[in-house]
Write a structure and sequence with these properties.
single chain; 656 residues; 7-stranded mixed β-sheet; 24 strands; 40% helix; 20% strand; binds 2'-deoxycytidine-5'-monophosphate
Length: 656
């Protein structure tokens, strides 16, 4: 099963167009579950039936088939194409009623889940109960809304009236009625999942809405990297070429004829593009020598990869096997690049021109051993690379680093959180055989706690050296989205505590400060702690704070909501128009201070990124750091970013 993206929300919020745009861009499938409910309604109207049992029977007789191609989604009932019929006013008027029947929902749930599991790389599913009921494990959940009037206007425009009279008023009434029916029915009503991201599209157009979701997919690493497969006979120099791509010498054994090796993949970067290179080992003719087949490993690589590289030894030239391989490669209908290896100079190049005969166009001359031509080849590869590829992606569980100096109670906290719910342990591929991450259920969703092996081990090992502890924290932070820094509330906040908090801030991660051992905090300690917080934690005033006692479990249920709040802030995006109207008011009331006799003018601002939110202010001159901090403070007051650092940068542009 591929990545599942759930988009729920009321009618007219822009779910369909957004979902299709995302699916198209990612080359994923698309499922409009509303269409299925409309299909059931169409059947009910056709057969003039109202009883749920009759509708379920009609669905058996004329099964619905949904074609998940986002370019042209289609719905069939039996063999009849009803794609446009289900958009009729009659269907629209009855669909809420039909979809409220639990029996009908149950029948269509089975169909939806089949379509979802059938999707290979990914699927964008839109509806009302996808994140809550149909795909509660979806890797990304979006709740897309818009004001009723904006939605009515959009629907009205879609309804291409024959006369030019607009019926916005009517559409609004009907939408409103459906909103009410859909969100108040007993069985799986329209609802936002607790771990969904809310996007209000009232002020956004389609591109902006889709971009917002795309940004989340990228940031959460839910888009697979493209895979480049290296194919060719044994001993043509594939491994040497991979070493060249990686820019280092990694121990790869040369291909040995007759030995099937697994496909090995390496992560590569060229000109800012990341991709995977897959080594296929050699493939060769079948031992009986009659038929020539492609080895299994090469065959799988061809199917999985997004770009195919055929490597030929130019000093040997193309053999029959190469011709067969070319035929196989062609069937894949993927970009193919022909590489003539072992071309060390112009004379070999002249000879290698014979490889044009393979019919794959111009051969790329390289010398994997000496590096000749490898830069040009990488340029070419990056050119044909798709944006999203078939490589394994993250599972979508939010990544939490539990950190803090020794003896603050990290492992007791981990134990009490995991409790009975500690279900799964996981390996990070390729790095170590240690089970490093733990999947823990908290507050209704599963979280990936990073490097918990480190925590447990450190608990019984009095002191690993400081250096390694810091390094391990650093690495955990890099992989995490949110850090839970555990402090011992019963003792004064230390230098080391503050250093760890600064590390989180500098890494740009969301932050929760757990004041552990709260059971040991008496009135006196509380007073001094308040003072310490004022003095030392001033710079991270925005952090979420949770007082708890890991030992007894007191307040442990406060953690999940704090994590959610922090992550929501961390991924928040402020629309440019709102940002600039806020800034305009702010500047008018408090202009930037004069510096060296000149008053810098602030022209505009934009949010450059999320995770954490990063803002860029364009000004005509330098802005004092105190004024920048003032802007950040006001930004927080206006838009609220609890739990996340916010970065504000100023770019100076000369006045025109
Ligand atoms: O998205 P749409 O307007 O085509 O959906 C039509 C109706 O189907 C909607 O009013 C409620 C119902 N529906 C549902 O109950 N559950 C879903 N997952 C999707 C749609």
């Amino acid at each position: 099963m591929g990545i599942v993206v759930a988009i729920d929300g009321p009618s007219g919020a822009g779910k369909s167009s957004t979902a299709r745009a995302i699916a198209l861009r990612a080359s994923w499938s698309y499922l409009d579950t509303g269409a299925l409910y409309r299909g059931a309604t169409w059947l009910a109207l056709r057969d003039k039936i109202v009883e749920p049992a009759q509708i379920v029977a009609a669905l058996k007789n004329s099964p619905l088939k949904f074609d998940t191609d986002p370019a042209e989604p289609k719905l069939f009932a039996g063999d009849t194409d009803i794609t446009s019929e289900i958009r009729s006013v009659a269907v629209t008027d009855h669909v809420s009623e039909v979809s409220a029947h639990p029996e009908v929902r149950k029948a269509l749930l089975v169909l939806q889940q089949k379509l979802i599991t059938g999707a290979r790389r990914g699927i964008v599913v839109e509806g009302r109960d996808i994140g809550t009921v149909v795909a509660p494990d979806a890797a990304l959940k979006i709740f897309l809304t818009a004001d009723l009037s904006a939605r009515a206007l959009r629907r009205d425009r879609e309804l291409a009236h024959t006369d030019s009279t607009s019926q916005v008023g009517e559409v609004e009434k009907s939408l409103h009625q459906r909103d009410i029916t859909d969100s108040t029915r007993a069985t799986s009503p329209l609802a936002m999942a607790p771990d969904a991201i809310a996007i209000d599209s009232t002020q956004l157009n389609l591109e902006e809405t889709a971009e917002r979701i795309w940004e989340l997919l990228k940031e959460r690493r839910l888009l697979g990297l493209p895979i480049v497969a290296l194919l060719g006979r044994p001993n043509v120099g594939k491994s040497t070429l991979i070493n060249r791509f990686l820019g280092r010498r990694e121990a790869i054994v040369e291909d040995t004829p007759g030995v099937t090796r697994d496909r090995v993949t390496y992560e590569c970067e060229w000109n800012g593009r990341d991709f995977m290179v897959m080594d296929t080992g050699g493939w060769e003719s079948k031992p009986d020598g009659i038929s020539i087949g492609v080895s299994l490993s090469a065959e799988l690589a061809m199917k999985e990869a997004d770009v195919l590289l055929l490597v030929v030894d130019s000093q040997v030239g193309a053999l029959d096997e190469d011709d067969v391989l070319v035929q196989e490669l062609r069937k894949m209908k993927k970009p193919i690049i022909l590489i003539a290896n072992k071309v060390d100079g112009p004379s070999e190049e002249a000879e290698a021109h014979g490889l044009w005969n393979l019919g794959l166009g111009e051969p790329h001359f390289v010398s994997a051993l000496h590096g000749r031509g490898s830069g040009d080849l990488l340029d070419r590869i990056v050119e044909v690379l798709p944006e999203v590829g078939g490589a394994q992606v993250q599972d979508g569980y939010r990544r939490v680093a539990l950190i803090g100096r020794p003896n603050v109670g990290k492992s007791s906290l981990l134990n009490i959180l995991a409790g009975q719910n500690r279900s799964l342990v996981d390996d990070v591929a390729g790095t170590t055989r240690d089970p490093v991450d733990e999947l823990i259920e908290l507050g209704g969703s599963i979280w990936r706690f990073i490097d918990t092996a480190g925590i447990r081990r450190r608990a019984n090992q009095q002191s690993g050296t400081d250096y390694y502890a810091t390094l391990r924290t650093q690495i955990a932070l890099e992989r995490a989205e949110v850090a839970v820094v555990v402090l011992d509330a019963s003792v004064p906040i230390s230098e080391q505590d503050l250093r760890i908090i600064t590390m989180v801030e500098e890494a740009g991660k969301a932050l929760i400060i757990v004041m552990n051992k709260w059971d040991l905090v008496d009135e006196d300690r509380q007073i001094s702690l308040d003072r310490e917080i004022d003095r030392h934690l001033d710079q991270v005033e925005w952090a979420q704070r949770v007082n708890l006692a890991a030992k007894t479990g007191w307040h442990r249920d406060r953690l999940a909501p704090a994590l959610r709040t922090a992550l929501t802030s961390w991924e928040k995006r402020i629309p440019t128009s709102r940002l600039n109207s806020f800034l305009g008011t702010l500047i008018a009331a408090t202009p930037p201070p004069v510096r060296g006799g000149k008053q810098p003018k602030i022209m505009y601002a934009t949010q450059a990124g999320i995770a954490p939110p990063r803002f860029v202010i364009f000004a005509t001159g330098f802005l004092e750091s105190s004024y920048r901090r003032f802007i950040e403070r006001r930004l927080r007051e206006e838009f609220g970013f609890p739990g996340t650092p916010v970065q504000v940068a100023v770019r100076v542009r000369e006045r025109e």
